[in-house]
């Protein structure tokens, strides 16, 4: 589908600083798996083909992430998680200011911004690529209290120390689990950083929780529930965004509470 067939417009934060980019999506007839989706962007007099999963390249171009995923493909995941978490906090009479959040796969800060909007007290972003941290600093410089570039499974000593002293009580992970992004071992490592009784809020593609899952998340999430490690309090299947043909991609958002660490033998 071409960009003129899908909704366009500006989102809030960065729009005033942002120039509109010329973006073309592949033709409607092409069937492309979510993992292989791409667009073409007109830059410096040339069309450049960029894969959606090439986050480093996307973050380097100011405004591209927001314009592509949010304006054109109507991504709703940060809003949905923010809303569910806020509702659950209200239901449980928890002050959002008490949240000390680890935003795993934080990207350029759209989720952090939602968490600030609901009043989260302390925000730590983690992403595996430096371009994400640079884009968060460029686009949303006041959102995170700290932002680390690290693999949470094997963080360098200084990041390990900083995450310990942050006294994290909430994990947020939006649109970043599965495919070549965050694997079950990294989800477990981040989950185990959160204090017992803390909040776990994440989104995941619906297929990764189904019987056909090969990512390992379906088994892991089920095991966490069965062993009483994660108590889901709110679960919603929703339209994450549309794909390049305008067809809906459905994800599941889960907001729950952590009761104990995930032992290593629960990993797939
Ligand atoms: C689709 S983006 C989502 C960004 C943000 N959560 C949002 O919803 O706007 C996925 C992010 O996960 C990051 N990522 C991929 N693998 C990761 C890993 N193992 N640890 C931390 N971040 C990772 C990517 O670099 C990218 O920034």
TrEMBL record:
It comes from the Bacteria. Pfam families: Methyltransf_23. The keyword Methyltransferase applies. The keyword Repressor does not apply. Keywords: Methyltransferase, Transferase. GO terms for molecular function: methyltransferase activity. CDD domains: AdoMet_MTases. This is Methyltransferase family protein.
């Amino acid at each position: 589908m071409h960009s003129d067939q899908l909704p366009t417009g500006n989102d809030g934060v960065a729009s005033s600083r942002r120039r509109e980019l010329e973006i073309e999506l592949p033709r409607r007839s092409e069937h492309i798996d979510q993992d292989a989706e791409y667009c073409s962007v007109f830059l410096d007099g040339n069309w450049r083909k960029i894969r959606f999963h090439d986050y480093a390249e996307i973050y380097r171009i100011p405004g591209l992430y927001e314009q592509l995923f949010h304006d054109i493909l109507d991504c709703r995941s940060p809003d949905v998680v923010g809303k569910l978490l806020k509702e659950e906090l209200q239901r449980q009479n928890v002050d959002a200011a008490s949240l000390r959040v680890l935003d795993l796969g934080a990207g350029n800060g759209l989720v952090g911004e939602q968490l600030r909007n609901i009043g989260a007290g302390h925000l730590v972003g983690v992403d595996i690529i430096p371009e994400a941290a640079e884009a968060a600093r460029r686009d949303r410089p006041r959102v995170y209290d700290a932002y680390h570039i690290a693999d949470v499974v094997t963080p360098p000593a200084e990041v390990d120390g900083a995450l310990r002293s942050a006294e994290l009580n909430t994990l947020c992970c939006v649109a970043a689990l599965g495919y070549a992004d965050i694997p079950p071992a990294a989800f477990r490592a981040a989950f185990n950083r959160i204090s017992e009784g803390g909040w776990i809020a994440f989104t995941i593609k619906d297929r990764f929780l189904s019987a056909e899952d090969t990512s390992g998340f379906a088994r892991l999430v089920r095991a966490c529930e069965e062993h009483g490690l994660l108590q889901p309090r709110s679960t919603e299947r929703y339209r994450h965004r549309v794909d390049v043909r305008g067809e809906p991609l459905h994800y599941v958002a889960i907001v729950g509470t952590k009761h104990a660490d995930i032992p290593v033998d629960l990993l797939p």
